């Protein structure tokens, strides 16, 4: 399988504080890798370095053979990013949001419009192309948030807590769409706090804590490798969770 993403010794420091400490992993086309960890473990910081919105202190990120530090704009051309916040333009319609995002990739307007129509059909919003985004339900907004970063036909899709706040039905719809994209050959990297979401989507899991990888392996066998009953117990064990001492440690950055 073709390696789409390669992360080597990725490190992020803010002064004397180390948010991400020597993280390494790879992701192939048609595979999904989930990063699991508590708040403040460095998940979002890791993603931000990968998609070039946060400078890398040390280490290397390669996307489709492109060094993200050396050619961030070129690397971004093959990435689609779904963040926790939808960041939709409320002054534009559903279709106009899609087109405005597509123009950022220097794609001819006619091609952008054609792909926008196809993607809105894919996420079930074909009948809402001319609707204001403020008229969409929460689940419908998340469908649009998924469709928009696919406008450049990305080989790597990055999702940071993509279904937070969605109801059960909307989450399952979202999962189904992501699995279709994986079957079509996309590489998917996501963070999530939902163990059932990781079970439904991930081929492999990386567990991080205090900026370091503390466990990694196939989603289906990681618990067994750690001698745990299930993935949730494996996560709690790997992160040394102790209910008797649950004080939140002070950190500067996630």
From TrEMBL:
<dbReference type="GO" id="GO:0005524">
    <property type="term" value="F:ATP binding"/>
</dbReference>
<keyword id="KW-0547">Nucleotide-binding</keyword>
<dbReference type="InterPro" id="IPR003593">
    <property type="entry name" value="AAA+_ATPase"/>
</dbReference>
<dbReference type="InterPro" id="IPR027417">
    <property type="entry name" value="P-loop_NTPase"/>
</dbReference>
<comment type="similarity">
    <text>Belongs to the ABC transporter superfamily.</text>
</comment>
<feature type="domain" description="ABC transporter">
    <location>
        <begin position="5"/>
        <end position="235"/>
    </location>
</feature>
<protein>
    <submittedName>
        <fullName>ABC transporter ATP-binding protein</fullName>
    </submittedName>
</protein>
<dbReference type="InterPro" id="IPR050763">
    <property type="entry name" value="ABC_transporter_ATP-binding"/>
</dbReference>
<keyword id="KW-0067">ATP-binding</keyword>
<keyword id="KW-0813">Transport</keyword>
<dbReference type="InterPro" id="IPR003439">
    <property type="entry name" value="ABC_transporter-like_ATP-bd"/>
</dbReference>
<dbReference type="Pfam" id="PF00005">
    <property type="entry name" value="ABC_tran"/>
</dbReference>
């Amino acid at each position: 399988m073709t390696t789409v993403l390669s992360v080597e010794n990725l490190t992020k420091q803010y002064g004397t504080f180390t948010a991400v400490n020597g993280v390494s992993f790879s992701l192939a086309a048609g595979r999904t890798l989930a990063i699991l960890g508590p708040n403040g473990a460095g998940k979002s910081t890791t993603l931000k370095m990968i998609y070039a919105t946060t400078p890398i202190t040390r280490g290397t990120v390669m996307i489709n053979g492109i060094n993200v530090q050396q050619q961030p704009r070129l690397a971004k051309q093959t990435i689609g990013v779904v963040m926790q916040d939808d960041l939709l333009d409320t002054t534009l319609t559903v279709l106009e949001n899609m087109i405005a995002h597509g123009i950022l990739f220097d794609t001819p307007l006619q091609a952008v419009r054609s792909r926008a129509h196809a993607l809105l059909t894919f996420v079930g919003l074909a009948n809402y192309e001319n609707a204001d985004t403020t008229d969409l339900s929460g689940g419908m907004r998340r469908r649009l948030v998924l469709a928009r970063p696919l406008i450049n036909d990305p080989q790597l899709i990055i999702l940071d807590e993509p279904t937070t706040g969605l109801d059960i039905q909307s989450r399952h719809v979202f999962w189904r769409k992501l699995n279709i994209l994986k079957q079509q050959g996309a590489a998917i990297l996501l963070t999530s706090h939902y163990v059932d979401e990781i079970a439904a989507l991930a081929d492999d899991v990386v567990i991080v804590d205090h900026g370091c990888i503390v466990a990694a392996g196939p989603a289906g066998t990681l618990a067994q490798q750690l001698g745990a009953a299930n993935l949730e117990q494996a996560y709690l064990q790997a992160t040394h969770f102790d209910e008797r001492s649950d004080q939140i440690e002070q950190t500067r950055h996630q």
